[in-house]
Structure formats: structure tokens, C-alpha cells
Amino acid sequence: MRHPTSGRLSRVRWKILVLLTLITALTYLDRLNLSIAGKYIQDEFQFSNQAMGWILSSFVWGYALCQIPGGWAGDRFGPRGILTLAILWWSLFTALTAMAPRLPLARWFGLIAAFSIVRFLVGVGEASALPNSNKIIAYWMGYQSRGLGTSLSLVGIGVGGTITPVLIAAIMQRWGWQMSFYICSALGVIMAAVWRFYATSRPEEHPGVNVAELALIRAKLDKQPAAVPASQAPRRNPPWKKFLTSRSVWGLMLSYFCEGYPNYVYYTWFFLYLVRGRGLNVTQGSFWGTTPFVAALILTPLGGGFSDFAVRKWGLRRGRRAAASTGMVVSGTLLALGAHTANNPLAILLLAGAMGFNLFATSTWWATCIDLSPSFSGSLSGLMNMWGNAGGAAAPILTAVIATRFGWAAALDLAAAICLLGAVLWFLINAEDTLEPAG
Q1: How many C-beta atoms lie closer than 10 Å to residue 340's C-beta?
Q2: Considering only CA atoms, which of 323, 333, 328 is closest in space to residue 301?
Q3: In the predicted model, what is the mean pLDDT of residues 347-374?
Q4: DSSP state of 7
Q5: What angle do CA 302, 335, 255 make, to 5 degrees?
Q6: What is the pLDDT of residues 155-164, one digit of tens each?
Q7: Which residues are CB-contacts of 258 (< 8 A; sequence separation ≥ 6)?
Q8: Residue 409 burial by CB count (10 A; 0-12/13-18/19+): exposed, middle or buried?
Q9: CA 253 to CA 6: how far, in whole Å?
Q10: How far apart (Å, rounded) are the C-alpha atoms in residues 243 and 435?
């Protein structure tokens, strides 16, 4: 493809990152909508906390189990097309969530199973989103900008989490909980069309990338070890044996389990915790329920920038470790403090800060996947994120059981302890390891 030769540097890579941010925001809108609508659904169908825990966790099982296939598909066929199909898939099943009580599944297996199956399939679609976003970043950003690139993509978590409680609560109060899922589905179809029309997998394929921007991207990639092949997607299989025998990869997987568990406490139970555990009404809960995501919106890009700064100052191994461990230690500490603070506004702000610092650390995991294997960053990201969502799948169920038997403070204490364990596990990880296949 011929590229414009005007001397002024084009900015297509930043527009691609904006689209990735919006896609991430959409995934969290469609992930969190059920936790907000859950109070209405629980009251209408008389579901117990444990039943809601199973329904909420079903998304995570579909999401976790399809991480590796979703990442591999992006490595094999290109992330642009896989992302388009994934958005359309999960948007369809988001709409079907509203129809779950009327689906044949409800007659065949019962209402709880019908909701669970549909949400499982939403998770199957969303599984491809972050691994393929990370693959796009591997093509478009150099290693000294990976922390920033991944963090800007992950800012969508804060955006989606901030708007979801307010948007879903407003829609439910005016038109009912079913309409909230239909509107989320329609937004997904629009997003898929915009992504398909504008984006490309690699900068070489984009007509808006001029020679100056392409040279800048290539120069940054050429400075990294084992640079991603620029001219074509790799057609070899990922080096699974190298991945599964690497101490760094096992450190990534186990520590990301510890990252995922506390996050899913927020994604699935935080709104209901505020309403049922802290005594807030729905309007108050929807307002205060945005605070963790506002914190994430602020702290996620700061964490990515700090990760890149730490790499420049201390190198890949110590820099990535310092960024991730700092975020997780602060997150676990704030989570434990918030769990035992009686004053509602102060407790909620502490808990919000805990999630913000968790996301401060998160971009470093994703950047490290690219550090370790740029050519197969989609597959490695999927492998890592599968473990993160295994922690996420356990969180809704264990939180419900522990909160019912021992109280909400005990449930949050467990999440805080898991955060601290995640920081310790980073000492297994060396981002300077090279896991690219030979030849």
C-alpha cells in the first residue's frame, strides 16, 4: 500500500488507541450491566444471593475458557476481523439476556440456567477483546510506549465502569431492566461497524498512515528485541511449550489470577454491597458505584506511564516488577482499610482507591505479554487473561458465600489478601525473557 508522503506526522496510531479504549468501555458496559440490573432481576424472580452469584459468574467462565482461542485467532487471522466478529457476537447475546425468561432455555432447564447460559455466551464473545487489542498495540507501539499504549486501552475499564451504573439505572427506572440490555446491544453493533470501517491490524495496511508515522512506528519496533514482523502476521503456531515451561509465564498467570479476583468483586457485587451491605438506596448506590471506576479512569494511564518510566530507569525486569507490585500492595492495603471503615463516604473512597491502584498495575501485565513474545502476544495475553478470569469466576461465588456466613468485611479481607499475594508473585517474572520461537 502506498502511504501519504506529506512531511507532517500523521496521528492514526492514537486514533486506533481511542477506538480500542471505546471497545474496552463497551466490554465493561456489557459486563457490568447485569450487576446493576441484578437487584431488579433478583427481586422480580426471587433469586437468592447464591443464585445471583452463579448467574454473575457464568459470564466469567465463558470469558475465561475462550481467552486462548480468542488470542490465537488474532495471531492467526489478524485482530481487526476477529474483534469485529467478537463485538457482534457478544452484542447479540447481550440482547438475548433481556429475553432469557422467554427463551426455550428457561422451559428446558429453568430460569437460573437460562440466564447463566446466555451470560456464558456473552463471555465467550468478549474473550477475544483484550487479547486482540493487545495484539493491535504490539503492531502499533514500540516497547518504550507499551505501558502507555496498554493503559490507554484499559482506560476503557474506567470509562465503562463510570457510565454503566448511571446509564443502566436511568434506563431501568424509565423503561425497565430489559431495555438496558437492548440499548447496550445496539451500541455494540454501531461500534463493530466503526471499527470495521476505520481500523486495520497493522499500520502498513492503513491508508491514513503517512511515511513519517510509519517510519516512527518501525523505528520503535526495530529497537525492541524480537520485533513483531511488520509485513505479515505470523503463520506458525505459538510456542506453547516455551510458554508453559517458563517461570515468567507461570508468574504472569498466577499473579493475574490475584489481579482478577478483587476486580470481579467490584464488577459483580459492589453495587449490591452498597445497597444491601451499606444501606444505600438505588440512586445513591448508582452514584457511589461509579467511584471505583473514576479512580481507575485516573490511575490507569498513570500506571502505564509509570511502568514505561520505570523501564527506562531500571530496565524491563525491575521496571515492570516495580510498577505492578507497587499498585497491588497499595490496592490490597486500601481494600482492607475500606472494609473496616464504618463511615460510608470514607469507606467507599478507600475502596475506590483500591480498585484504582489495581488498574494502575494492570497495564504492566499486558505490556509484559508483548515484552515476552511480541509475535504471539495475542496467544500469550489470552493465556494470562484466562487465569485472571479464573480468579474472576471464583470471586462472585466465594464473595456471596463468605458475605452470607461471615459478613462483607470478611469477604473483602480475602480480596485484599489476594492482592498482596499478587504483588509477591511478581518476583517470579522477568520481562527480559525471550519466548519467541527460534528461526
Answers
A1: 11
A2: 323
A3: 93
A4: S
A5: 65
A6: 888 888 888 8
A7: 328, 391, 418, 419, 421, 422, 425
A8: middle
A9: 45
A10: 7
- Enumerate the H helices of 340-376 as residue ranges: 344-372
Q: Please, is 182 exposed, middle or buried when counting C-beta atoms within 10 Å of its C-beta (0-12, 13-18, 19+)?
A: middle
29 within 8 A of 198, measured Cβ to Cβ: no
In Å, the largest CA–CA distance within the chain is 67
Distance of alpha carbon 215 from alpha carbon 210, whole angstroms:
9
Cα 280–Cα 355–Cα 244 angle in degrees, nearest 5: 135
DSSP for 152-187, written as a single string:
HHHHHHHHHHHHHHHHHHHHHHHH-HHHHHHHHHHH
Give the three-class secondary structure for 224.
coil
Q: Quick check: 64 and 392 in contact, CB under 8 A? A: yes
The backbone torsions φ and ψ at residue 228, rounded to the nearest 5 degrees and listed phi first, read -65, 130
Q: How far apart are CA 264 and CA 49, in angstroms?
A: 16
DSSP-derived 3-state class of residue 201: coil
User: pTM score, two decimals?
Assistant: 0.82
Domains detected in the chain: 12-428 (1.20.1250.20)
What residue type is assigned to position 18 of the chain?
Answer: V
User: Does residue 227 surpass a pLDDT of 70?
Assistant: no
Whose CA is closest to 361, among 261, 259, 257?
A: 259
Confidence of residue 9 (pLDDT cuts 50, 70, 90): confident
Which residue is associated with the grid cell 453493533?
A: 189
> Which among 132, 156, 18 is positioned nearest to 71, based on CA atoms?
132
